Every structure is written in structure tokens, then in C-alpha cells.
Amino acid sequence: MRNAFHDQLDAIFEDLAAIGRLVETAVARATRALLTADAGLAEQVISADVDIDRARERVEDDAFQLLSLQAPVAGDLRIVVAALRMVTELERMGDLSVHVAKIARLRVPNVAVPEQIRPSIERMAEVAEHMVRRATSIIAERDVEAALDLHKDDEEIDSLRRDSFVTLLADDWSHGVEAAIDAALLGRYYERIADHAVSIANRVVFVVTGQTPQEAGV
């Protein structure tokens, strides 16, 4: 019975990693749509979000079934609850990708990101994509060391966002309020994607060690 229970737990984590890969694709495509004014690609991101939502529902159903039928002990209960929280984080990352895609679509045929702020947005997007990819790997491998290390990337994206405000508020910003609002929102979306990746990593640390990242060494 316990072996079957742990097989089901492993299957849930495999499903979480699969959702992570869907999110990776969503973030990458949304960014490409944003930087190239590709309305068709933006629509793909928006339409594909339903796949992430449905996958989240399946994970939730499986987790609730485990809770109701297997009466997990404390350690196993911790894992199931963490899985439920992680799937919510993943879904929110997908939603943030949709927000990026919607800004891209709204400004077509123009590129939503002015050249003056483009390097900052490109780098934030690059870091966010990298963090989603690492978070997916951390889920699949339950890699505590990589999870603890992910905080360094989060610090970079926080710094990039702060720097972007300097550009947006500078006297030589010549692209108007609308472009400034778009850029500020985009920075926030990528920052939140990174935050969710860190939160997922933190939950993996707790699943594996029974400790928070602070207790485990961050």
C-alpha cells in the first residue's frame, strides 16, 4: 500500500514537471511575441493557457484523491500539500505569460518595447525564462542544492527591474506614458515569474529536507 502511495506521489511530481515545461514554452513564446510584434504567436500563448489550467486541475484531483484515500502520515502529507501549492505557482506563471502576450498583441503592428528600454526587458525575460527552466528541473530531480542557488538569479531580476525605473523616469524618456506603463508592467510580470520560480524551489527544499530554505542554509 505504501509503495503504491509513493508511486502516486512520484507521478504527481512528474506531472508538475510537465506543467513546468508548458510554462517554459509559454514564457519563451510570449517574450518572442513581445519583441517581434508577432500577433499570431501571442494568440498561441493566450490560447494554450487552457492546457496549463487543465493540467493543474488534474494534479489537484490526484492530490485530493491521495489525501482522501490514503490518509498520509506527516511527512507524506507535507509532500502532497507542497505539490498543491507548487501547481498553483506554476499556473500563475502561465497567467503572467498571458499578460505579456496580451501587451504584445495590444501594440501590434508596433513592438511594445521601445529601443531605449529593450536591453533591460530582454535581460529580465532571459533571466525569467532561465529560472522557469531551472525550477522545472528542480521539481523533476528534487534538487535541493539547485533550489537554494536559485535565489541568486532572483536578485539579478530584482536589480534589473529597479534599474528599468531609472530609464522610465529619466528626463530623456521620449516614448510617452503608455509605453512607460507597458514597460513597468512587463518588468513586474517577469519579476513575478521569477518570484514564483523561487517559491517553487523553496517548497522543493521543504519537501526533501523538512526545513525552510532559511533553516537549510539560505
From TrEMBL:
Location(s) in or outside the cell: Cytoplasm
Keyword check for Heme: no
InterPro entries: PhoU, PhoU-like_sf, PhoU_dom
Domain (PhoU): residue spans on this chain: 19-103, 121-204
Family statement drawn from the similarity comment of this UniProt entry: Belongs to the PhoU family.
Functional note: Plays a role in the regulation of phosphate uptake.
Assembly and interaction partners: Homodimer.
PANTHER family: PHOSPHATE-SPECIFIC TRANSPORT SYSTEM ACCESSORY PROTEIN PHOU
Protein name, as recorded: Phosphate-specific transport system accessory protein PhoU
Organism whose genome encodes this protein: uncultured Nocardioides sp
